[in-house]
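User: Could you check the structure of this?
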Amino acid sequence: MSISLPQSSLRSGVINALAAYFIWGFAPIYFKLLADIGAGEILMHRIIWSSVFLFLLVLFSKKWRVLVQLCKQPRVIAKLILSAAVLAINWLLFIWAVNNNHLLDASLGYFINPLFNVALGMLFFSERLRRNQKVAVILAAFGVVVQLFTVGSLPVISLVLASSFAIYGVLRKKMHVDTFVGLLIESLLMLPIAIIYWLYFVESPTADLALNSNTLNFSLVMAGVVTTAPLLCFTAAAKRLTLSSLGFFQYIGPSIMFLLATFYYKESMQAAEFVTFIFIWLALALYSFDTYYTMKKLKLING
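Assistant: Sure, the predicted structure tokens are below.
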């Protein structure tokens, strides 16, 4: 019985991780449909409709008591305020990057993200880095340095996306908070700002839903589903896998983004940027091999 529970938890974590990263990988196609709408306005809809869908999830899953109990814990709410702020930054920058032809930068950011997770896992969860993991992190860092000296600037969009989502993962992993309820509280904490922004600061013609087409309104409402579904899968996976193991799956999303940016949206890439990608890919290949070898070795030891 003690063996089957970890195996079941691991299997669930793997399934949730795969679902999260496949959805995130294809998410740019959705946001490109809203390219004529400002990033701030799209973020506003993400927050509002995510709150609605999460509210319904908590309602139908009968987790009201958990919600009420969490609302009575100021320390937990303070931590969720911080995680919500980090998440909002990540959302806004990703939307802006996709709709301003910086999907390659977003892809690079999420390629770097697994290696950020490895480093943060070492800092906050005492996950010791093996030799190959250290080499992988060094390769990734070198790739970023190459771009700094050849292009003359850091890949800021990529680094902010990578670091913000890695920090979000750490914050959520350190909190013993129910997945649905935690995401609902985060969304509700952002909701007043989103509503104020909608009522007083949005001046675009699409701000009035009554004047929009049904197709556009449906697309805007779907921002809640596109946002909520992968996040629920991710937080569920983060609670069942170590940050190092979770990083093993994170190349799926950026790989899809890279293919979309290169072959479908035809974004241009400088030679130095491609060199950076090569170093990141080498780092991920080494990291993935090390993770696979270690997991296989542990499986043999445990019989």
